[in-house]
Amino acid sequence: MGNILNPNKKNFFINLVQAKDFRVLVDKTDFIAETNERFDLDGNLLALTRPRRFGKTVTAHMLLAYYSKAYAGQHLFDGLKIAGNGSYAKHLNKYDVIYIDMNTIRDEYIAYTEDEDLQVRGVTTFVDYLKYTIIEDLKENEDYARVIGKSRKVGKKNLTAALQAVCEYTGERFVLIMDEWDLIYRDYRNDAKLQKSFIDLLTSLFKSDGGLGCFALAYLTGILPIKKYNSQSALNTFDEYNMLAPGEFACYFGFTENEVAEIVKSAKCRISLQELKEWYEGYKIKGIDIYNPNSVVNAVRRNECISYWSGTSSNEEVIRLINMDFDGIKEDMLHLIEGEEIVFNCGRFQNDMVSIKSKDDVFCLLVCLGYLGCKNPNDNNSDTEKSEDENNEADEQDKTEKTEQNGQSEQSAAALRKNRRIAYVPNAEIKSALLDIVKEQDWYERMETIKRSEQLLKAIRDLDGDETARLIQEVHNSPAVSIYDYNTESALTYCVITGLMWSTLDDYDYHREDQAGKGKVDLVYEPTVKGRDPLILIEFKYGKSAEEALKQIKKQEYFRRYTKKYTRNIILAGINYDPKSKDHQCLIEKLC
Predict the structure, then answer these.
(1) Do 12-246 and 447-590 fold alike per CATH?
(2) pLDDT in tens, 261-279
(3) CA-to-CA distance for 44 and 38, rounded, in angstroms?
(4) pLDDT tens column, 320-379
(5) Whether CATH 3.40.1350 fits 447-590
(6) CA trace torsion 534, 540, 545, 550 (10° rounding)
(7) What is the 3-state secondary structure (H, E, C) of 167-229?
(8) CA 175, CA 16: separation in Å to the nearest integer?
(9) By the 8 A CB rule, do 231 and 66 touch?
(10) Which of 86, 436, 488, 497 has the fewest beta carbons under 10 Å from its own?
(11) Where are the domains of the chain?
């Protein structure tokens, strides 16, 4: 015991602050000012949920270190943002904090079930053990043990009564912090009885008058939003913020653009802002660009932008969701990886891993897990996003008409629009993770998108310009490309990269605007294994001709850089798009 009421050992936040001179510290302590404003007022029950590796535990440890009496006099926040706030001294280390780490409780419960000497009569389930453990931890304080012992209501498992007894004795209220609040909904997802027992406990604590009177502030964090039954939240007393609806707390869900820009200015950072942006940014929350904080820290520490998304268990969850194949979601995942954005509705998502009834639910869960980014169409300003809205305007109108035909009110139609979100793959790190997942599936090679990509590569290697042009036209007309303005050579380059993505994953690396010969070639596909596959050089033209593109490759001698390494195993391709006829033309030759 002694790990729940005012635990005072070092934690992630304290370690980070004490090592700030040689580790990356992004000061998010201004979040404490937000929680201070909620004390003893409406809104003092707060839930912020976000994906793994997005700083949930560090934030929980920060709140613990600030509010708990156990850290009084340690000056942990000197020089940090919160120290300049008017509420700083009022709440600093003034409270008994009940800190519940559900991962730790689960591990202890497993050990408890395996050792008969530890077992207590009547404490038989995880929730029983949770209540019993908190009560026993409170009793580590001799005064609290005495008042709890005098209460006839407490027993082994009446946690609410135990808290009430202590509050009546002290005249003070607790701060409660629960990390991984949703563990039971994830690890015991098929145990409906246990889940009901858990939600009954939370309801007793946070919806009953007796329980509510015990807390000056309660903070829940985890991956999943608070569970909904039908359309209602089981804990509607909480102000809830999550990846689907972050509200005013969007800037606390990860590192912001400005915060990463400051990291890059540090002498210990040798990675550019553009590299970090490409790999780890892209979570556009409430119009704010958010970076994965764990990955940024690892990249700066190791001086290497690679995938730090090590999520074996969550990968298994993604595989399960994709293989449910609601409404062709397998094909949708391929299009998302290619760069497409897909509209979905989050209104019916019940915030768990079991009640998955549609593609909308799958996308909601993938957003919560961090595998997809999520934008609110109402926050969009870019041309791309406008195009997406235009493409889906007809669908939205159809939905509204159907709503009215079913006799529902205009208010219901407005709710439908309010719950609309746009899903997309946020960055190179997540793209890499999803690629690894889908490539291992037995359906992967059977998908039409994959077959078309293989056909396109074969056509280029067969020097078949007509077939290459036809297949590029198909890619251009696909959802992954058609949402973009197709009016530059750059857009044409993107179209071809998209078309070749799946067939070149293992055998080629591609480079854009590669310095070669007397200038820069638009696109190069370089084999990963020398001597097996041909090098492919591609030059693009817009509104001109494929002949001009091919002629430029030869005149500028773009191939000269590569001839020694690849002898004559080099393919030259000139591709043009005619904006008047809306057709592609392609000429392909092998270097002689």
Answers:
(1) no
(2) 999 998 888 999 999 999 9
(3) 5
(4) 999 998 988 999 999 999 989 999 999 999 998 999 999 999 999 999 999 999 988 876
(5) yes
(6) -40
(7) HHHHCCCEEEEEECCCHHHHHCCCCHHHHHHHHHHHHHHHCCHHHHCCEEEEEEEECCCCCEE
(8) 23
(9) no
(10) 86
(11) 12-246, 254-302, 312-439, 447-590
Q: Contact at 8 Å (CB) between 5 and 138? A: yes
Neighbours of 141 (CB within 10 A): 16
Helix (H) or strand (E) holding 521: strand 519-527
- In the three-class reduction of DSSP (H, G, I as helix; E, B as strand; rest coil), residue 243 is classed as coil
Secondary structure of 371-383 in HEC code, one letter for each residue: CCEEECHHHCCCH
Helical axes 273-280 vs 293-302, angle rounded to 10°:
140
Query: The sheet that has 519-527: what strands, in order across it?
Result: 508-516, 519-527, 535-542, 570-578, 583-590
Cα–Cα distance, 238 to 226 (Å, whole number): 9
CA distance 183 to 200: 15
For residue 400, pLDDT beyond 60: no
DSSP 505: T
Within 13 Å, how many C-alpha atoms sit on residue 247's CB side?
10
Q: What is the mean pLDDT of the chain?
A: 89
Backbone angles phi, psi at 343, to 5 degrees: -80, 135
Q: Which helix (H) or strand (E) holds 502?
A: helix 489-504
Structure tokens at 263: 């990291």
Look at residue 392 and tell me whether its pLDDT is greater than 50: no
Q: How far is CA 70 from CA 60, 146, 174, 221, 493, in A?
A: 15, 21, 13, 22, 60
- Using DSSP's 3-state secondary structure scheme, residue 350 falls into coil
Under CATH, which architecture does the 12-246 domain have? 3-Layer(aba) Sandwich (3.40)
For 24, the token pair is 């990356």
Beta-strand runs (E) in 247-309: 255-256, 283-285, 288-291
Alpha carbons 434 and 175: distance in angstroms, whole number: 39
Longest C-alpha distance within the chain, in Å? 96
Q: Are strands 215-222 and 228-229 parallel, antiparallel or unpaired?
A: unpaired
